[in-house]
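Database export, one record per block. Field names are fixed; values are copied verbatim from the stored entry.
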Amino acid sequence: MSGIILMDGSIEMNKLLVTSFMVVMTGLLMISTASAYEAGPAGQGVIQGTITFNGTPPPPKIFDLTKFPQPRFCGEVDNDGGGHRVFKDVTVNNGRLQDVIVYLQDITRGKPFHFNGTDVTIDHCRFLVQGGPSTMIGVVMNGGVIRILNEDADPTDPHSITGVLHNPHGYEVKGHSSSTLFNKPIPSKGQLLTETIYLHNPGSTMLLQGDQNNYMNAFFYPVENPYYAIVGPDGTYVIDQVPPGKYNLIAWHPTLGTQEKEIEVGVSGTVTVNFEFSTTTPSPHLNKDPNAPNRPPDDISHDGPGK
């Protein structure tokens, strides 16, 4: 048997210390990688385009509200009139797809990047991402914070007059595997939960889901530079002040997947890059059965550095 035996004869304690050290170092490495971007001369190039959807969009997910807490209060919005919450994770307007992140990878120098964290408001049992054209998706940054504000209270329920209990559960997701980033209750209206984000696996994204109500979902793509755009209802995007060079341009939708294109930006002028999505296999972010237990598959809980 290997391992350093401590004075009390415990090898398990040594293993725990080594594991904790590795977790901290992983977090520091991820932060160092994210901070590799530095401000420099802003470019004059522009990337623009349109995100379209080919085919018939999948139907929205339907949740039986009677199977979840606070069915009357939560049913005041996004209700089909039959006692069901409707969650539309693929929204197409005249062939144009919304709720997409377009991101320029591997750029290390350019316009200033001041990331002030990610804000989410809980309103009638919905996670609503703030500050952009989409309330379903947003961006996060390793070492940055996410702030989740509970604005729910039900004056008709004696147990919820001061607040409706929500339990935001943050997951790191890659493929069909996921791990817990945080999982904490916020029972009072006006209560703010602030968590620092550490994504440990390259290529992973973040899912925010309600433990009490698993129809509460929001999705986040990690960024390391300011060259990204969040696509709203018109399906268009613009990324400006791009320095000249060759880059990989990513388009990410939490349900429909990721597309990537190699592009070249000149000293000035506009490059048009369009993306077309279509229905693919179900996303690992969401349960196939909308009324099933709310934990994504293969969940392995862990705490990031500083937990």
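Remark 1: The CA atoms of residues 272 and 301 lie 42 Å apart.
Remark 2: Confidence is low (pLDDT under 50) at residues 1-34, 287-307.
End of record.
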